[in-house]
Amino acid sequence: MSERDDERPSPEQPGQSGPPQYEPGGYGEQSPYPQSPYGQGSPYGQPPYGQPPYGSTQSGSSPYSPAPYTGGPQPGQAPSVPPSTIVLAVISGLATFTGWAAPIGLVPLIMAIIALASYKSDLEKAQRLTRWGWILFAVLAAVAVLIVLLVVALVFARS
User: Fold this and answer.
1) Considering the domain boundaries, does residue 87 fall inside one?
2) What is the pLDDT of residues 29-80, one digit of tens each?
3) Residue 102 — pLDDT band, cuts 50, 70, 90?
4) Is residue 110, in this structure, part of any structural domain at all?
5) Is the pLDDT assigned to residue 25 strictly greater than 60?
6) Per the structure, how many domains does the chain have?
7) Residue 17 confidence (pLDDT)
8) Residue 140, in any domain of the structure
9) Is the Cα torsion angle 111, 116, 118, 121 positive or negative in sign?
């Protein structure tokens, strides 16, 4: 028996009623409540003291900090397809195959396809073809809009 058990009155002693009295103890004393069957830990999902939270790094940086910039494709890796080239191919393809805007989209579509085929070997050529494809698409679309406006104006002028 320890000294602590000697200081506490036992329930069999005369003159005491009710459950045994617990004194507030110091650090390390057992709790009068049963231990959780799921082990030690906070009920709020936080790890016990001394352990880093899940996903944290030991260097002190936040787990929510952005990843460091790696600077684009590394030597030996093929560059990624420029998104502008893909968008040009899709939009000019839709303009070509919908029928009503075939003259607008045909040449920019060919330029986008050539750019997609050559981006791995010559990225500058692909970017140049894409840039000129967008310029040509915009000029042809503007000309088409002007022609439509001119036709509408002529139709209303005759009526």
Assistant:
1) yes
2) 566 666 655 555 555 555 556 666 555 555 555 556 676 666 666 666 667 8
3) confident
4) yes
5) no
6) 1
7) 60
8) yes
9) positive
| Residue 121 located in a structural domain | yes
C-alpha to C-alpha distance for 153 and 159, rounded to whole angstroms: 10
Neighbours of 133 (CB within 10 A): 26
For residue 95, the enclosing domain spans 83-158
| 70/104 Cα distance (integer angstroms) | 39
Asked whether the whole model's pTM tops 0.70, one would answer no
User: What are the tokens at 45?
Assistant: 């999902």
Closest CA to 137 of 98, 99, 96, 100: 96
